[in-house]
Amino acid sequence: MVASKETQLYRHDVDKLSVSEKEGLLKSYLPQNQPTNTKPLKSQPIRHFCKVQLHFLAFALMHTLFSLYIRFRQAYHILLDRIFAVLYYHHRAPELIKQDIQALTRIPQHLTVILELKEEEQGFVGLEKLLDDVAEISAWCAGAGIPMLSVYERTGALKDHLQRTHRAIASKLHAYFGRQVPSLEIQAPHVQSFLNGEDLGQSPSSAGHLSILLLSAEDGRSTLVDLTKTLTEMSQRNKLSAEDISLDLIDAEISESVMTEPDLLILFGPYIQLQGYPPWQIRLTEIYHSQDNNGVGYQVFLRALHNFAKAQMKFGR
Predict the structure, then answer these.
(1) What is the pTM of this model?
(2) For the chain, which terminus, N or C, has the lower number of CB atoms within 10 Å?
(3) Distance from C-alpha of 16 to C-alpha of 14, rounded to nearest angstrom
(4) What's the Cα-to-Cα distance from 298 to each of 84, 92, 147, 159, 270, rounded to whole Å?
């Protein structure tokens, strides 16, 4: 009842006000410079059409310039590869490979590469091409004096054909080195190593030794997960205290079960894709990638070694 009486008194007071007084009360709540007579906006189809066409023109111009840049960059890299192929080619001669790297101040002791068995190339032909790439890189490493090579292939096709891989590499080494073939050892995590240096009929010590490690996706993150589970179970059973778990322990366990840290990683694909490569082992690894490259080539291998020799390793405290 009180509210209704106050409302009636308020309305009664308002009715006594003049029109100008009512406008004065509302004026402070209105926006500034409010036009008194507003006309409805007319549609402007010509302006809208011009704006749309301008946006299309800007997009087409940007797309054209970027396409030209990509084409020129690809042509430059193709020309550069052809020049390197003429100036530097191994001719399957280890002496020429040593000559190409004799000016380098250092070479990696552990080289790793990432190769890919594409879905459209799976089968006998794709596997043969993959084996040939692995054999070529192995021969280059042996000629350059690199004692350790690890090859990562995501699906594990190389690990499934360990002896076949060994035969392909041994045949390629014979083509490069003739009778003085270095001893060859192929191994994979959790798989017995395959050593066949003496079976080649040569002295392993006279031409050096080459160790090849085959890796797949199961040797990457899953290894870290398995190690974490193992350390957790040992800690719960009081076989290992939490204070004993350190980076050095993890590094030692992973290095023993998978591999040590490589010095140089070469990517032969057109994009920087690690494809599930073991992450722990490449914390301090120098990674080399050649733009617009699409395939294994000696020029990329040689440029990677030159880039590694000039790289500066800076380690934090």
Answers:
(1) 0.75
(2) C
(3) 5
(4) 9, 11, 18, 24, 16
Structure tokens at 312: 């500066």
> Among 171, 134, 168, which residue's Cα sits nearest to residue 150?
134
Looking at residue 119, the DSSP 8-state letter turns out to be G
Q: Are 315 and 298 in contact (CB under 8 A)?
A: no
Q: Judge whether 295 and 142 are in contact, CB under 8 Å.
A: no
| Burial category of 93 from C-beta neighbours within 10 Å (exposed 0-12, middle 13-18, buried 19 and up) | middle
User: Residue 5 and residue 38: Cα distance in Å, rounded?
Assistant: 40
In angstroms, the CA 265 to CA 111 distance is 6
The region of weakest confidence among 28-37, 47-56, 98-107, 168-177 is 28-37
% of the chain exceeding 90 in pLDDT: 36
Instruction: Locate 48 and state its tokens.
Output: 């809208």
Closest C-alpha to 131, from 110, 151, 111, 147: 151
Question: Are the beta carbons of 166 and 157 closer than 8 angstroms?
Answer: no
**Token representation of residue 90:** 């191994």
